[in-house]
């Protein structure tokens, strides 16, 4: 079986693709531009990818292709309609990044609420030594216990964040399509109006695109912290950036963007010098253990496919 990895560099240089050699000949490409896709997929029976977009045009000549394995839970970068027409199986991986994303979500909330980078700079700049005062309490920070944490999207990751938020003493409100026992489920408007911290964990669909729009952002409390570790397009990025610059919200923790990496024309580029913006390079999903688990799950998807079984199939 001929297996091609299209964008290995997006999975990190500290893990090996050798796990896939058990299934056949493996070609590992560090990256594939959209212009290169049509050439790189030729002859492959199995494609492994993370961020590359596969569509009707660039898959047209992939006549040997039988299986696509996405190194992610989301699969909006795959043209499923075309894959169904051609009988190409598509598998994702569910639940592999729960701990990693939840960890980064909570770390962002704590850092923004506690102003850790600013306090660290007081010491590292030498100001703490020079001023001769035994402590520094500016900027003001607040305890997380007693805050209201709103969670938009309550799958595996949202559920884990909710459990940690409760353990930290937060009151948790949940926004999801189907109410779940043991959690207070409310509409999005209440989340926006009442929550001190809001974290977003919903997949990107036509129903969730621009879900947190300018109208909802205008409802947020002036000191609210918004964290997005889902997909950039779930929010109105321009409205979020404007709200932060105008001090109508308290902080932003963003790990995902509508364009990755974002350019100088992106609304968040204006936030690079903001103390209350924690912008990270789409890394929340990628703890070392998480990525090892991801490759193991992808290997199991291939094994199941070869055995005629349906495992993590989304086609």
Structure description:
The chain is of the alpha/beta class. The chain folds into two domains: 2-94 and 288-306, NAD(P)-binding Rossmann-like Domain (Rossmann fold); 98-279, Rossmann fold, CATH 3.40.50.720. Helices cover 31% and strands 15% of the residues. The chain is built from eleven helices and twelve strands. It has helices spanning 37-40, 56-59, 80-86, 98-114, 116-124, 127-131, 156-167, 188-194, 214-217, 237-245, 288-306; strands at residues 2-5, 25-28, 46-49, 67-70, 89-91, 148-152, 171-175, 184-185, 197-200, 225-228, 251-254, 277-279. The strands form two sheets. Strands 8-7-6-9-10-11-12 form a seven-stranded parallel β-sheet, with helices on both faces. A five-stranded parallel β-sheet has the order 2-1-3-4-5, with helices on both faces. Helix 10 (237-245) links the parallel strand 10 (225-228) and strand 11 (251-254). Helix 4 (98-114) packs across helix 7 (156-167). The longest helix is centred in the last third of the chain and has 19 residues, at 288-306. The protein is globular and about 70 Å long.
């Amino acid at each position: 079986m001929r297996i091609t990895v299209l964008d290995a560099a997006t999975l990190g240089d500290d893990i090996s693709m050798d796990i896939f050699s058990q299934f056949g000949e493996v070609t590992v490409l560090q990256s594939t531009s959209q212009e290169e896709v049509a050439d790189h997929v030729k002859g492959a029976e199995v494609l492994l990818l993370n961020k590359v977009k596969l569509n009707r045009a660039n898959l047209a000549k992939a006549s040997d292709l039988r299986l696509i394995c996405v190194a992610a839970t989301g699969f909006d970068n795959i043209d499923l309609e075309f894959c169904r027409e051609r009988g190409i199986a598509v598998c994702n991986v569910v639940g592999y990044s729960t701990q990693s994303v939840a960890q980064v979500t909570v770390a962002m909330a704590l850092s923004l609420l506690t102003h850790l980078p600013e306090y660290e700079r007081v010491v590292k700049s030498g100001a703490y030594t020079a001023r001769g005062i035994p402590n520094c309490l500016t900027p003001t920070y607040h305890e997380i216990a007693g805050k209201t944490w709103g969670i938009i999207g309550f799958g595996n990751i949202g559920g884990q964040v909710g459990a940690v938020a409760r353990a930290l003493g937060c009151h948790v409100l949940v926004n999801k399509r189907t109410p779940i026992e043991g959690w207070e489920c409310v509409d999005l408007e209440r989340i926006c109006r009442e929550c001190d911290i809001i974290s977003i964990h919903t997949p990107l669909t036509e129903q969730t695109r621009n879900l947190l729009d300018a109208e909802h952002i205008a409802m947020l409390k002036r000191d609210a912290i918004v964290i997005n570790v889902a997909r950039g397009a779930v929010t109105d990025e321009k409205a979020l950036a404007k709200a932060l610059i105008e001090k109508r919200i308290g902080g932003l923790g963003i790990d995902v963007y509508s364009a990755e990496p974002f350019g100088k024309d992106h609304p968040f580029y204006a936030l690079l010098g903001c103390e209350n913006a924690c912008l990270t390079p789409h890394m929340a999903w990628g703890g070392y253990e998480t990525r090892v688990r991801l490759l193991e799950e992808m290997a199991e998807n291939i094994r199941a496919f070869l055995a005629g079984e349906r495992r993590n199939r989304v086609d």
